[in-house]
Amino acid sequence: MTSLPTAEDLSRRAREAAERCGVDLAASAGDRPVTSPVNGEVLISVRWQSRSDADAAVRKATEAFGEWRTVPAPVRGALVRRLGELLREHKEDLATLVSLEVGKITSEALGEVQEMIDICEFAVGLSRQLYGRTIASERPGHRLSESYHPLGVVGVISAFNFPVAVWSWNTAIALVCGDPVVWKPSELAPLSALASAALLDRAIAETGAPANLSQVVIGGADVGEALVGNRGIALLSATGSTRMGRAVGPRVADRFGRSLLELGGNNAAVVTPSADLDLATRGIVFSAAGTAGQRCTTLRRVIAHESVIASLLDRVASAYRSLPIGSPLDAGTLVGPLISDSAYKSMQDALLAARQQGGEIIAGGSRRLAEAAPGAFYVEPAIVRMTEQTDIVRQETFAPILFVLPYSTIDQAIALNNDVPQGLSSSIFTSDLGEAERFLGPDGSDCGIANVNIGTSGAEIGGAFGGEKETGGGRESGSDAWRAYMRRATNTINFSGALPLAQGVKFDI
């Protein structure tokens, strides 16, 4: 039987990694236990903060904004450059904390920190490219232009599955745009958050930036609610469930704030008759089983042509049966634990519903290592063959369940892809150029991310990240997502000495 680390060993590793990142463990100590999904035991206990602490953080960040917004953007970029350097120095420490707190295998945890480093590099370059535009004016002797200016305090509410990367997406871009950040991290990953914040605090001190540019508030739902309702938060970036987004979006809109909502995903891959099935299998297995099915971009549905579905199922099921499941800290492990018992229960409930709705479990679904760690929840990723897209298939279950459905025409495949409430990521495996272009076109996938011959997860930071429909519609990370963190001004300069009006209006006095 695979052995799991002891509570003492995990706690020691966590403390050492956090201290190397600069976390003051004495100051953060409290009575709120943090349980590691690796073994189901308490890792450390921390102090939770309150709604009043969140409000105080916003006030401090607002004061810092008054100074930071007038600092030239390339100078602001120097702060983010230093953060990226510190992340490189402490990559393994931060990845260790991610693995211990949320159960990511070492490779994925290191990849998450690398994503932080990558967005810092992107943001540093962006600090010299916050372009406006010049527009042709219809009036002689006039210049019409647009410019972008810092927006204000950015609030970030992040989820457990990417406990540090999503913060970095927002923070690196916000800082070069001239905005301070107040962060409410997942209560399941406070050490990862404190370590990230400590590294940024060090970068702030070393570059002489305002001390309160970065605030982290550890706490529960009341802290998040405080940020949602605080008029001092100009932009709120919230990652979580669709249910959470339905509560957050209207409240932010009611106070005329801006929001970026990254919510649910129910992502599909279409596998066509011309697909390279070996390539498709590798793409499917990583996208569906990686992070134990706990990514918003996790592959949850395969829509396979009826001529290849049997062969594809054999390949994927065979790969599933050989997946190494165990401690995420062990070399060779590919599937770590679910985050909690509630995630395990949701998975079992979904598998029961699938069977009741005509599904056949082809592989997986059972619990592993229950005797070694009763409080940890390791599972075999499951494959369920369905004859149609039923209610349970349209729901997002945040666990490694892959539903496989048949199709006969490309129109039917695209319709199945789109026939869910969520619209985050999608892909098609094909060697047919026409099918690929159709999938990417205006009558193809309705998702914010559409790929060809790769899976649904593993997005690069260079592209804007986000989705449509119940996924929320916001965009973060690369491309022109920076515009959400700034206010746009249209400017007209009259140097003609006269006062002609637009549209030929005459108003002589």
TrEMBL record:
Keywords: NAD, Oxidoreductase. PROSITE patterns: ALDEHYDE_DEHYDR_GLU. It is an enzyme of class 1 (oxidoreductase). Residues 31-488 form the Aldehyde dehydrogenase domain. It holds the Pfam family Aldedh. The active site is at residue 262. One of its GO terms (molecular function) is aldehyde dehydrogenase (NAD+) activity. SUPFAM superfamilies: ALDH-like. It comes from the Bacteria. InterPro entries: Ald_DH/histidinol_DH, Ald_DH_C, Ald_DH_CS_GLU, Ald_DH_N, Aldehyde_DH_dom, ALDH7A1-like. The keyword Oxidoreductase applies. The keyword NAD applies. Its EC number is 1.2.1.3. Belongs to the aldehyde dehydrogenase family. Homotetramer. PANTHER family: ALPHA-AMINOADIPIC SEMIALDEHYDE DEHYDROGENASE. This is aldehyde dehydrogenase (NAD(+)). It comes from Actinoplanes lutulentus.
